[in-house]
Design a protein that fits this description.
single chain, 27 helices, globular, mainly alpha, two-stranded antiparallel sheet, 7 strands, 3% strand
């Protein structure tokens, strides 16, 4: 009886997934291309009730016979129905980018089936072999459709296109070059996965090899940190950092330093605390350093150093998993040179930078079941931002359903489930409280970014859940528009697609943040490299890589040391990742050029701005506000209504480097509101003062 009860949840949960997939296939076939891919408003609540009823009926029928199913059989069924749905999705897809995305989604069920065939199992059942071959055949069919549709012309809805599917080019500019380099990285990492991940180090010779490889990794980390820091310092000192999203934080830190509060006037053109926009008291951890070095450049470098700390929990997790130093080193370099991680620092300072190291520390302390460090890590993570709790909920569910299956000791299993449950409960409660506070005293959480997923706008978040239940094809269509698919392919290739090679269903819980925060919304910046939205989601993907390597490493504690002929495999992977990272840095060479080629101009402008006394009220254009941020009253002219204010500014400063037409508008705005041009005007800056002076 006890044994059966242990099997109930794993079997029943998978049977529910099978029931849902069967319903989804039927609903997809009965719906039009318009309804499946473009227009979310075509769904109805009546249709939802029918779909929910169908799932429950199928689930009940399957549950009646659940004791006759084995977990492996149900896993094959999940793979089969998922692949069948993806095949239909590809066959009817109105754009090529959707086919690419569906092929990526098809990789996990295909690999599960393929690995079952490749296993050396003399007791393999005919059913297992047959289902594996069927699933692989469906995947091959998907790939054939993909390859034969490269030149297809996208068919775009002329009625309503809420998924933003388009016929835009996927590759342009330097994208083809980056794709080629990412393919090289992909091949190198797959070779590591196939040939070099089953070894542990136990010999004296390997100790010296480990020291050598970790020295290389440390050198690469220093190179990355210094290079990225210099890029951001050049960007700052070239007066190329705008009000959004940097100068507002510089002003906030000056106010934290001087008054202890996170007040800004730049963020919403009124005096308010940043906590009214995002609940991010984590910034106070950076304040001690800023108080010693109170410059904008300090904040740029601090962010990069904070992200770099993520190598510590990666190393500790790999050590706990008993991975070889060579595998560990490759994963560390994946983190160091991942394009999404690196480029997330390109757009200046954001609290999101804390996500990468802290989420990895949370996972490490869950694995080690260390309650006090875990409590501290969870608390700090919650202080990053209101949506950080979503990452923790995902980690909590993974702890319960994903990592628990890897624990043999019953007491440790129970403790792990308890830890995961507590994290979920605390995170959900925290999210509800903070979002309520933001709604009442702040500007509310930015749920509007997900309006594209809501067919029932009157139902709030519940409407999104129901919508996605009814139309998973719509979610896929939203995720795989041309621009998104480029970023998704580059991301997955530079991870070696290894996160997609996990054979454990609940590991894919860790991909939820990637879907939610990066690809489910049509808000353009969240999926693009160069913005702050990838820190947390990619950290979880890199942890998935560690999990896959752990599951594939040898179980024999007396395993032999690494064979020397395999060393080049690791070194080639590290070299390919390094080359990709260097190439990514080269795309920002213009920051150094702007600094060096215009050094006189930059110095004159910077010195002029820094010499303005801190008690003066200033209205300025966006690229000037960074070096004016050490004052209480500072506004960006682009977002401020000069005609509707009682504030008399001591200076209105216009950057003459920017668009001349816009400058003329600002000049007329100043003149028409009682300001006159000052003799402080120079060839780089136009300065206005109140006419009375």
């Amino acid at each position: 009886m006890t044994k059966l009860s242990k099997l109930n949840f794993p079997i029943l949960s998978r049977l529910f997934i099978v029931a849902y997939l069967i319903m989804t296939i039927g609903a997809f076939l009965l719906s039009s291309v318009e309804g499946n891919y473009f227009n979310i408003l075509m769904i109805s609540k009546t249709e939802f009730y029918y779909q929910l009823g169908a799932v429950l009926i199928i689930f009940i029928i399957l549950s009646i016979f659940h004791k006759y199913f084995k977990l492996q059989h149900i896993s094959y069924f999940i793979c089969f129905f998922l692949l069948l749905f993806l095949l239909l999705f590809v066959m009817k897809a109105p754009a090529f980018s959707l086919m690419i995305g569906a092929s990526l989604v098809a990789l996990p069920p295909m690999y599960y089936s393929l690995s079952s065939i490749l296993k050396r199992n003399t007791k393999r059942k005919v059913f297992d072999l047959a289902m594996s071959l069927i699933n692989i055949s469906i995947f091959i069919t998907i790939v054939i459709y993909l390859l034969t549709s490269i030149d297809m012309v996208a068919t775009i809805s002329t009625i309503l296109n809420t998924t933003n599917i388009s016929d835009d080019a996927i590759l342009y500019g330097n994208r083809e070059e980056f794709l080629i380099k990412s393919i090289i990285v992909l091949i190198a990492l797959l070779i590591v996965y196939i040939l070099g991940n089953k070894e542990k180090l136990h010999t004296k010779a390997n100790k010296y090899l480990s020291i050598a490889i970790y020295t290389i990794v440390a050198s690469l980390l220093i190179y990355q940190t210094v290079s990225l820091s210099m890029i951001m310092i050049y960007r700052t000192q070239s007066l190329a950092t705008p009000t959004f999203d940097f100068a507002l934080f510089v002003q906030m830190f000056h106010n934290m330093k001087n008054f202890g509060t996170m007040v800004t006037t730049l963020e919403r053109s009124v005096e308010l605390s940043h906590l009214s926009i995002h609940f991010s008291p984590i910034f106070y951890l950076m304040l001690p350093v800023f108080m010693v070095f109170p410059t904008p450049e300090t904040l740029q470098v601090l962010q990069i150093l904070i992200v770099a700390i993520g190598v510590i929990p990666i190393y500790l997790i790999a050590k706990t998993f008993k991975l070889s130093s060579f595998v560990t080193s490759v994963v560390l370099v994946i983190y160091i040179f991942n394009p999404a991680i690196i480029s997330s620092s390109f757009y200046d300072l954001h609290e999101n930078c804390f996500l990468a190291p802290l989420l990895l520390f949370v996972i490490y302390f869950i694995i080690r079941q260390k309650p006090i460090p875990l409590l501290i890590s969870v608390a700090l993570t919650l202080l990053i931002k209101e949506d950080a709790s979503i990452y923790l909920v995902v980690i909590g569910f993974f702890s319960i359903f994903g990592f628990t299956s890897r624990i043999d000791d019953f007491k440790q299993k129970r403790r792990n489930i308890m830890i995961g449950s507590i994290i979920i409960i605390v995170s959900v409660m925290y999210f509800l409280v903070v979002t309520k506070l933001l709604a009442n005293s702040g500007e509310g959480v930015m749920f509007w970014r997900y309006d594209n997923l809501n067919g029932y706008s009157d139902m709030g978040i519940l409407g999104i859940i129901i919508t996605l239940f009814q139309k998973p094809s719509y979610l896929l269509a939203t995720m795989f528009s041309p621009d998104k698919i480029y970023h998704l392919v580059i991301l997955m290739f530079t991870l070696g697609v290894i996160p997609l090679l996990s054979r454990k269903l609940f590991d894919y819980i860790l991909m939820i943040p990637l879907v939610v925060f990066n690809f489910a919304t049509i808000y353009p910046y969240q999926h693009q490299f160069g913005y702050q939205y990838y820190y947390g989601s990619v950290a979880l993907l890199i942890f998935m890589i560690l999990l896959v390597f752990k599951d594939n490493s040898t179980k024999n504690s007396n395993s032999v040391s690494i064979t020397y002929f395999k060393i080049p495999i690791y070194l080639i992977a590290i070299a390919s990742l390094t080359v990709f990272g260097v190439k990514l840095f080269e795309t920002k060479d213009f920051n150094r050029d702007n600094y060096e080629n215009f050094i006189t101009r930059n110095m004159v402008m910077k010195e002029f701005l820094l010499e303005i006394p801190g008690d003066k009220k200033v209205l300025a254009t966006g690229y000037l506000t960074t070096y004016l941020a050490d004052r209480e009253v500072l506004y960006d002219i682009q977002f401020f209504s000069l005609s509707n204010t009682d504030i008399v500014f001591d200076y209105i400063i216009i950057d003459l480097r920017v668009n001349q037409d816009r400058n003329e508008v600002y000049e007329q705005l100043a003149l028409s509101n009682g300001y006159v041009e000052s003799d402080l005007t120079n060839e780089y800056l136009q300065v206005f003062v109140p006419e009375t002076e």
